[in-house]
Amino acid sequence: MKQGARRELPVVGRPPAERADAAQNRRKILEAASRIVAARGVESLSMDEVAREAGVGVGTVYRRFGDRAGLLYALIDDREREFQETFLHGDPPLGPGAEPLRRIRAFIDALVDRTEAQSTLLVMAEMDSPDARFADGAYAVYHTHLATLISQARPGTDAHYLADALLAPLAANLFRYQRRARGMDVDRIKTGLDDLITGLDTDHSAR
Questions:
Q1: Quick check: pTM over 0.85?
Q2: Is residue 146 part of a domain?
Q3: Does 7 reside within a domain?
Q4: Which domain holds residue 178?
Q5: Nearest to 60 by CA among 50, 45, 73
Q6: Considering its fold, how many domains does the chain have in total?
Q7: Which end is more exposed in the chain, N or C (fewer Cβ atoms within 10 Å of the end residue's Cβ)?
Q8: Could you say which residues of the chain have pLDDT below 70?
Q9: What's the pLDDT at 2?
């Protein structure tokens, strides 16, 4: 993929309509790639191996995803679409129906889990260019979602700044550094972020 090129990440919607066999092949290829990455890491992923694991011709993989980078981005996008569906339309407290602070906490916890699941791929995506993380559609969705909830939880505050501040610790490179170099587990990261969120609660009592 060209350095600095902006990837087209699907945001809050279904994939384009396609033939049943094409959709089945796409799902088989993505599932196969996910298994390989989970078992041996992103460095072990090859188009030939994915084709063998999925039981399709390697030409099908290339036609569908273009190259290895395109396949990796598709893995990110597929998980991203599922994640967005849960916090925009799923059950409370992550989805609509809970108090704003509970939704903020649930969202940040879920985003930690989402980052943990694909941290290597997300680091790769965020390194496309210095602004790659912010140019991609997912960041804008996260920011709007958080800013809306912050405005509801604490009217009159600078919700747009605070949304950026809550998202900053979840940059994939920092997250991976904390996990690998500092030895922080996921629960410790969630606890630290929860302490930041507590500052949004004027009486420090909403949980």
A1: no
A2: yes
A3: no
A4: 77-198
A5: 50
A6: 2
A7: C
A8: 1-18, 128, 202-207
A9: 38
